[in-house]
């Protein structure tokens, strides 16, 4: 199943400051972890700095709870001249049984940047 998810790009444990009034982790916290993981992969592919330009198709499937270990998986989905789309899956590992819970997935689009912060062509 890991191959379908892509490469493990980030693993993190949210803390008490990341909880909302329902006792779940803030959705914005999850989005930022996805952006970090996608950015790591996109920068490696682009061989330099990138910027997030779009997020497509986000849907939260299950909440993340305090104590969950959050794994973010990323894989290249498509590539243009200056931009690339990274498909990102988030999985929470929960409890002593280490149950894996699919949390969300989405597609983040990044553009490669030159020294003047302008779009530049991706390497071959």
From TrEMBL:
The keyword Hydrolase applies. One of its GO terms (molecular function) is fatty acyl-CoA hydrolase activity. Residues 4-116 form the HotDog ACOT-type domain. It holds the Pfam family 4HBT. Signal peptide: none annotated. Gene3D superfamilies: Hotdog Thioesterase (3.10.129.10). Its EC number is 3.1.2.20. Keywords: Hydrolase. CDD domains: BFIT_BACH. Belongs to the acyl coenzyme A hydrolase family. PANTHER family: ACYL COENZYME A THIOESTER HYDROLASE, ACYL-COA THIOESTER HYDROLASE YCIA. This is Acyl-CoA thioesterase. It comes from Sphingobium olei.
């Amino acid at each position: 199943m890991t191959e379908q998810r892509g490469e493990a790009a980030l693993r993190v444990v949210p803390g008490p400051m990341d909880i909302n009034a329902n006792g779940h982790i803030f959705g914005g916290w999850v989005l930022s972890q996805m952006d970090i993981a996608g950015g790591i992969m996109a920068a490696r592919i682009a061989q330099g700095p990138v910027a997030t330009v779009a997020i497509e198709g986000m849907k939260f499937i299950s909440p993340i709870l305090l104590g969950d270990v959050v794994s973010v998986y990323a894989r290249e989905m498509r590539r243009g001249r200056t931009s690339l789309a990274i498909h990102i899956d988030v999985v929470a590992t929960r409890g002593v049984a280490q149950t894996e819970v699919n949390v969300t997935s989405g597609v983040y689009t990044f553009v490669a940047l030159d020294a003047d912060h302008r779009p530049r062509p991706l390497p071959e």
